[in-house]
Design brief:
33% of the residues lie in helices and 20% in strands. By secondary structure, it is α/β, with parallel strands linked by helices. The chain folds into 2 domains: 424 residues, TIM Barrel (Alpha-Beta Barrel), CATH 3.20.20; 220 residues, Spore Coat Polysaccharide Biosynthesis Protein SpsA, Chain A (Alpha-Beta Complex), CATH 3.90.550. Strand 9, helix 13 and strand 10 form a beta-alpha-beta unit. The structure holds beta-D-glucopyranose.
């Protein structure tokens, strides 16, 4: 249960959060949604239940996301996030048992492609409260035999999408599904039966375990990260010293949180209110990460309301959200502590607040991110944070009355408008993210022998894999999640190339354009600020320090310069590049060598760019004399221009494991 801590938030210093120093560079920044809440036009267990739900509101065409996919992906992109969690609507994929709607499958496949094209990594949820009516009529999760059907759906989607999706959530919040559907009766099927709650809970765990084991055994299964998403709802005794309040809190904590976590840990599951635990095949160790959805804590007494519409008790200093439960960010840390016994990487798969006028959400975001960042600093393995939700949507039994979005949605016109909190979230994310990497990867290995004359050097194998993969390993370790690879005119040789954890975009030229021409040719894919790399150089330097220097100098272009190199090719004066010349006999006053990694503001490309073939370094560096900054750093860089140098690079890479 943990101790109920409260903090004086007025005295919390958010400087690191706002300046981009609270989270590691490779942190997964995301937003989350679920199919039924945004897509519109779904027919499933929920749409059938809606007329009987508390609000009586119908999901109808919701946010009409099904017809506005491209627009919404752009909204995600505009938030600067690197990850997007969505769910796949089974009732669309298999509207009747055994009949697959390939157009619907294609829709999700396109969604994934379009996300990746924009540098956003997808995370898919396979069950987020909804399923087809035909399956519901067979009893849904009330019948163990039905699990086969759901597994078939999971296999189908994994088969189609696992070549591009690395992150998978099996079931969203099994405890919420079971308790809302079978104890409180607020979700379909709207029942109140402890017996059914026990059965459904156990079947949810069976289904999760089978899903995990089945997908793991499929192609791409090993590299996929598959996990359960657990809502952690904290229960605290209303009066700390009242034994009845303590008992009630402990009971609820046990049923809502601990039995599920223990199940995952031991493989034996004791369903809420069950007397004995049951061994569930494949359950032990059935998660590569644990997804934590965290919203609040509830104060327990023996007389707690069993209806969501009666205001729960709160502490006098706490602020109620529109959902009536309080904002309690300190509890997020307790949620992390609670799942830490699983020894798994933690991902905050949902956190957000219902707040109609957006006056609480900015502070809600700051507090929960602050707590997350501090937990990371204390050594907890927290990999990502997905804000719930991208946009206002259909909030289940509450209908459209509870707004959780970073974008406001006008449900009449479907117009989306960024809220102040959305702008804040995107600023925080931007401050923490490493810019896009752009790699000039088209240069041919002309000096490396017959075999590579017609092959981009970046694809040459060194120490077991193409040099490009080593470069991406380094960029990935530095927190880069997006790379644009300029493949030159022989781009088809990159077909099928992928790199785990990174969204790659390839751009090919119809004829050789030189380094400058290649960049100009791809300018529509280049972001406002980018890190420029050469596809045949391995330069393991610290990107955050380089980018921080670039920022601090307000420089339009920053080159990394080493002073420890055989030849010199530039003159730097007072921190600026004065001259650049890569001809063989440079003037004797030259005092530095360009070592390969630079940070570029896109406007430099737009100002100096032109059509046709031209060289970036030979054009832009002289034109920007005394404007481009020199970042002095003597980290050794490795090129592979000649067979000897290639040999030395291989030796180095063989020795280093990144
Ligand atoms: C659910 C979401 C829901 C959110 C806010 C979570 O329990 O996964 O679907 O919208 O809470 O209530």
């Amino acid at each position: 249960m943990g101790i109920e801590e409260h903090r004086n938030w007025d005295s919390v210093d958010y400087t690191n959060l706002l300046s981009g120093n609270l989270f590691p560079p490779n942190f997964m920044w995301g937003v989350a949604t679920a199919s039924h809440q945004i897509e519109g036009g779904n027919t499933n267990n929920w749409s059938a239940f809606e007329p009987r739900s508390k609000s009586g509101q119908l999901s109808g065409n919701a946010c009409d996301h099904w017809n506005r996919k491209e627009e919404d992906i752009q909204l995600i992109k505009d938030l600067n996030v690197s990850h997007y969690r969505f769910s796949i609507e089974w009732s669309r994929i298999e509207p009747q048992q055994g009949i697959w709607d390939e157009d619907a499958v294609q829709w999700y496949s396109d969604l994934v492609d379009q996300l990746l094209d924009k540098g956003i990594q997808p995370m898919a949820t396979l069950h987020h409260f909804t399923h087809p009516l035909w399956w519901d009529e067979k009893g849904g999760f009330e019948n163990e035999n039905n699990i086969d059907d759901w597994i078939r759906f999971c296999v189908k989607m994994f088969d189609v999408l696992s070549d591009r999706i690395d992150w998978w959530c099996t079931i969203n919040e099994p405890a919420v599904f079971a308790s809302m559907g079978y104890v409180l009766g607020e979700f379909p099927p709207g029942e109140r039966s402890f017996k059914k709650t026990r059965i459904v809970s156990t079947n949810l765990m069976r289904a999760h375990a089978r899903c995990y084991q089945t997908l793991k055994s499929m192609e791409h299964g090993k590299r996929a990260h598959i996990g359960l998403v657990k809502n952690i709802n904290l229960f605290d005794p209303y009066r700390r010293w009242n034994p009845l309040h303590r008992l009630q809190a402990r009971l609820l904590d046990g049923m809502f949180n601990l039995c599920w976590i223990k199940g995952l840990m031991t493989g034996r599951f004791k369903a809420p209110s069950a007397l004995r635990s049951k061994e569930i095949p494949g359950l032990k160790g059935s998660s590569d990460f644990i997804g934590v959805n965290y919203y609040t804590h509830l104060l327990a007494t023996p007389f707690m309301p069993t209806k969501v519409d009666i205001d729960p008790l709160i502490r006098p200093w706490e602020q109620r959200t529109d959902f009536r439960y309080p904002m309690y960010a300190e509890g997020l840390r307790r949620a992390f502590d609670m799942v830490s016994c699983l020894n798994l990487p933690i991902i905050v798969t949902e956190n957000g607040v219902a707040d109609d006028d957006d006056d609480m959400r900015p502070e809600h975001i700051r507090r929960h991110l602050q707590i997350t960042g501090e937990a990371i600093a204390d050594g907890m393995d927290i990999r990502g944070f997905y804000h719930w939700s991208l946009m206002d949507n259909f909030e289940w039994a509450e209908g459209y009355d509870q707004r959780f979005g970073l974008y406001h949605v006008d449900f009449e016109t479907k117009e989306r408008t960024l809220k102040e909190s959305g702008a804040l979230y995107s600023e925080i994310v931007k401050a923490h993210r490493v810019p896009q990497v752009v790699i000039l990867a088209g240069g041919l290995g002309t000096r490396l022998g017959e075999r590579t004359k017609q092959m981009p050097k970046s694809l040459i194998n060194v120490s077991g894999k193409p040099i490009l993969s080593h470069i991406l390993d380094w960029a990935g370790a530095q927190g880069c999640m997006e790379a644009l690879i300029l493949t030159g005119h022989l781009g088809e040789q990159f077909d099928g190339f992928r790199h785990e954890g990174m969204a790659l975009t390839f751009h090919q030229e119809s004829e050789p354009l030189g380094t400058g021409g290649a960049l100009w040719n791809a300018r529509h894919l280049i972001q406002d600020r980018f890190i420029l790399l050469w596809g045949d150089d391995f330069h393991p330097i610290d990107y955050s320090e380089l980018v921080a220097y670039h920022e601090q100098e307000s420089s339009p272009l920053t080159l990394t310069v080493t002073t420890e190199h055989g030849e010199m090719n530039l003159l730097h004066v007072d921190g600026k590049i004065a001259q650049y010349d890569k001809s063989t006999s440079p003037p004797s006053e030259f005092n530095g060598y360009e070592s390969g990694t630079s940070v570029v503001e896109k406007r430099v490309l737009l100002e100096h760019g032109k059509d046709g073939k031209w060289s970036w370094e030979e054009t832009v560096y002289p034109e920007m004399s005394m404007k481009a900054s020199a970042y002095l750093d003597n980290t050794k860089f490795w090129d592979m221009g000649t067979p000897e140098r290639l040999e030395r690079l291989a030796e180095f890479l063989n020795k280093t494991s990144l």
